[in-house]
Here is the input.
Amino acid sequence: MTVIRKNFGSDNVGPAHPQVVQAMLEANRGAVASYGGDPWTARVGTLIDEIFQTETTVFPVATGTAANALALSALVRPFGAIVCDEVAHIMNDEAGAPEFFTGGAKLLTLPSPDGRMDPEVLQATLARRRISGVHQSPVEAISLTQATEWGTCYPVSRIAALSAVARENRLHVHMDGARFANAIDFLGATPAAVTWQAGVDVLSLGATKNGAMAAEAVVFFNRDLAREFAQRRKRGGHLWSKQRFLSAQLTGYLEGGLWLQNGARANAAALRLSQGLAALPGVAVVQPTEANEVFAALPEPLVVRLEAAGYGFYRWARLPGDGGIVVRLVCAFDTTEADVDALLGKIRRDE
Amino acid sequence: MTVIRKNFGSDNVGPAHPQVVQAMLEANRGAVASYGGDPWTARVGTLIDEIFQTETTVFPVATGTAANALALSALVRPFGAIVCDEVAHIMNDEAGAPEFFTGGAKLLTLPSPDGRMDPEVLQATLARRRISGVHQSPVEAISLTQATEWGTCYPVSRIAALSAVARENRLHVHMDGARFANAIDFLGATPAAVTWQAGVDVLSLGATKNGAMAAEAVVFFNRDLAREFAQRRKRGGHLWSKQRFLSAQLTGYLEGGLWLQNGARANAAALRLSQGLAALPGVAVVQPTEANEVFAALPEPLVVRLEAAGYGFYRWARLPGDGGIVVRLVCAFDTTEADVDALLGKIRRDE
Amino acid sequence: MTVIRKNFGSDNVGPAHPQVVQAMLEANRGAVASYGGDPWTARVGTLIDEIFQTETTVFPVATGTAANALALSALVRPFGAIVCDEVAHIMNDEAGAPEFFTGGAKLLTLPSPDGRMDPEVLQATLARRRISGVHQSPVEAISLTQATEWGTCYPVSRIAALSAVARENRLHVHMDGARFANAIDFLGATPAAVTWQAGVDVLSLGATKNGAMAAEAVVFFNRDLAREFAQRRKRGGHLWSKQRFLSAQLTGYLEGGLWLQNGARANAAALRLSQGLAALPGVAVVQPTEANEVFAALPEPLVVRLEAAGYGFYRWARLPGDGGIVVRLVCAFDTTEADVDALLGKIRRDE
Amino acid sequence: MTVIRKNFGSDNVGPAHPQVVQAMLEANRGAVASYGGDPWTARVGTLIDEIFQTETTVFPVATGTAANALALSALVRPFGAIVCDEVAHIMNDEAGAPEFFTGGAKLLTLPSPDGRMDPEVLQATLARRRISGVHQSPVEAISLTQATEWGTCYPVSRIAALSAVARENRLHVHMDGARFANAIDFLGATPAAVTWQAGVDVLSLGATKNGAMAAEAVVFFNRDLAREFAQRRKRGGHLWSKQRFLSAQLTGYLEGGLWLQNGARANAAALRLSQGLAALPGVAVVQPTEANEVFAALPEPLVVRLEAAGYGFYRWARLPGDGGIVVRLVCAFDTTEADVDALLGKIRRDE
Here is the structure.
């Protein structure tokens, strides 16, 4: 029997991967030191160092918002500013968490039609701001989203170019990697190449959307910046007493490359969906499908029919005139070809 | 074979209870709405309402510090103050989280030799402060710990007396119930009697120390105060996308009264330990053992020998002169009679 | 003898007006109640009520940044957002004070080529944001600058239209009136018409730039919103113990209409300068001169020569190609026709 | 004619000293650079360096609360703690400003029956806290009040002893010198000896209570700590655009030693009052009068009669039993012998 899953709403509506669950179950034995003094937390550090081919400082936390906001609080002062893309999660979807954790730093956005910032626009923006004394919030960091909120990926060269501008202006570089696995799969580059070798100081490495229950890792490549992190994490209520259950999710996720396999599965499903949609009359894929999200413009009556049929997805924007509705369709590690084909079939029939 | 567990360091060094784990495994199926729109979260609300015999507003979070700090942020303004006991967790062990989440409110402590605040001292303190305009931080809430950090419990009458003073002074009442189950077991009163019927507005209901992996519930009896909670929780990075895994811990914990059974087990072990210690020459139990923590004064050489033998516990204070070391010994739901007897035997032999 | 003043850099480089000084000297007698319990503070309230033809709640503070940031903290919650124009002082020139005083609220900007927000753009922006639950910072206020940072003024109809959109979306309305007197002079409308009658809840009424030493008044028309202001002002270190010296500046400024006379003088000087510049070949006035600031595009060699000759002003922007430099030239209440004509003559000679 | 002033309520109910006013009037000429680029601000720096016989970094601000809170924000991190005496102004009378400006740091108090902290108690307190990882707020600074809130002064040896403990524990040292001039007059020590030579890192140097309108100076002896101050001051709304009027108050206050003369006058009046009171039957001076504040226990009927006669002062505490009321009587630079004698005469007649 084939169970068709109709939920393309987000990669957070799905379950945890069995390997993650198994790691948690194995961790559930006997007494171990609390607050991170457990073997699973140590193992996370080792795994991350191996995967990124460098020595890092790693902090597990339970949510992406916590990972991003805490990471940013290590990069800017309360009176500083962060530059990000205009559709960034930290700007639009975290309820002011970055402002809260940084103590009031300002987020400034750059135009980014496909979710990616442009190094020249960054340089020009910084140059325009570099005017006077204490009246302006000094930009102290940039934040890239990889993969972006428009389902695209930053190639290594673009990251390096942005980092170069950042270094020149003495800014730190943060990467929001809620969908980092999907980006690595698409780019075919090493995790090292996409991060510290391209100038990234700290990465929010996502796991929740890609197979964990609630686990992310804040990975400092620039380890000096991690100095206050442990205290800020505790103050934010993000230090788990039984941290083994957080860390075991990450070991389960990282051991044996599960994270990459899951990312590849989700990407493949999204690509299949994207190509299927592109082939349909009246449907347009409006952003390159480079990760696990597909953005497509559909006629509104079709959108309504899909919703009525129980398909889960988000209306993202309404195009002017009769251009239709841009919807976001997200695939996850457990999205099957059958799931995708059923959706495509439904659309084909309903058009 | 009897496995002797030697860790009396905290109730957070132990594993999760199988029933909690089972509930998480059952929740790990298919796609469900994220961010709390799942059936497990709904079920938590129902269970809490039943247990407390009233309509409540409930928010699951992963840590006790998050529960306390977020709850307090609903009770006081950034320029307000909170009165708590001098050994309160919120004052001493949460790294400034209450100040962070409230936006800078002040914590003021009352003397509380056994962990409990005194209603008359509270009244006198408030009367002394009630002086002038805008220069002082207005006290806007009190926070009780139940069971207290000294392993004692507030009887219902004391809670009611403190709440009466609070009401008279227009203060809200918070209860830090990280060990609420242990208190209910000791008091033999209903959860309703110990909380809203005695004037408590909001309870941090602990589960992590008593069988969960990482789960607490913020329970608002005064539901008006919950108005901004959802936004503050998100802003604090404490809203799980896959919230079912947080809520399922709580359903597993609460269904069928597991929470009370676990609390009773931990209390019984602590009482056995306390009575055993009290019977030993040279050992003094220095606080009434009313929950799952035993505070005992031991000669320092004995403390050193226990540490060397691999027993885990905290040195809490050094008594003046030759009074010895006050140690904290914590029992949990999985502490067995054998564990306790082994420790007592070791002490008996080593004295 | 004519003293030519060459400083067009800002209206804050000049002295205080003699009538303001005189009021301060008169206040410097004997003992009076501190912290605002003095007759001058009471008089400020009366004067403001008369000028605005309604009952208000007024708080004197020493700086415009304090006035704006404290006023905004009364309008939005820490997790809320404020919409303002893209050149707003609160966004660009106050070092993050609004974020600091609000506890982390977010500032969002609208395109505003002449410094003014557009009601339709505001409506469209709010409609686009009105998506989902707790993930986005809810917009809770808008802030208008009157006169704007581009030297233009909002006509009453535009304020009313923006306020209507605000009301419909349940937003509060703040007006940054650092140059309010200049706007009133230009518009020829009553202070009431420009503020509460057009939907403004709270006004930062400037005095420093227009004749005071260091004095602004936060004027609440929506008096409910003033509830926490006194405590927030004290907590911000903005409550003067000898408040008479702050309030006396405001009585000196407001009594007998000095504020309007000063505003009119500054505006007249700016208009003379603007018209003189517009008549010169190679010079373009790039924004309508509706208050006391003139924005003009000058060839760069001319700008350099003026700087070398000791004229004070700001380079505001560099136009593309050979378009020259946009400079900002500010006139104040003590700028004379001779000052303006000397500058115009210098430019004429140097071209 | 002798004008008898009856206000002993505070040293902030009085006027500004003519020399301060004169300096402000002289500063009120022509255009000068704003935001501290004026000659008066430069002169303040020079004067402070001379007075303290060392190179300092100085920031004028308008209020004592701003001076203290901003200074403390330079010494501790948001998750840190500050130790102060239990009657400290920063703890009790600044509406949470230290918590606000530091971003949530915790204030911890030491018993201090006469307003002074004890080095041994400080050491013991720090030793007791030095327990564990990230759960406690690390103490990062101490704050002394000089003269204290009980009208006493720290001798140089006590400051040095406290600073030694601070250094050993890697804490910074702040001095709240709202009444610094009174302390210097009493101690007969140099300003250098009382501050940096005894280990003080930063001083809030008061002027408002002792002759200015609204002016204090934050003086950094440890100039590295001043790094972020300018930005924090701006963000707090405490940077005056027309800063000359703030700085001129300080030049008027400091030039020619006016500050010390004023301090000496206030102290002499207080001493005369204290000695007069001590000689009266039924009246007890309850703290040593070492500055310009007298704390005396009076029978309540006498207190009532004085209040009815229009004398201004604060009821500070009620002694147990029939011990009477402790009142605070403050003398200022303009309190005359006649003022004091009139009060003493009134008391003598009324007893």
Notes: The first strand of chain B starts at residue 57 and ends at 61. Chain B touches chain A through 54 residues (CB under 8 Å). DSSP finds 14 helices and eleven strands in chain B. The domain at 262-350 of chain B is CATH 3.90.1150.10 (Aspartate Aminotransferase, domain 1).
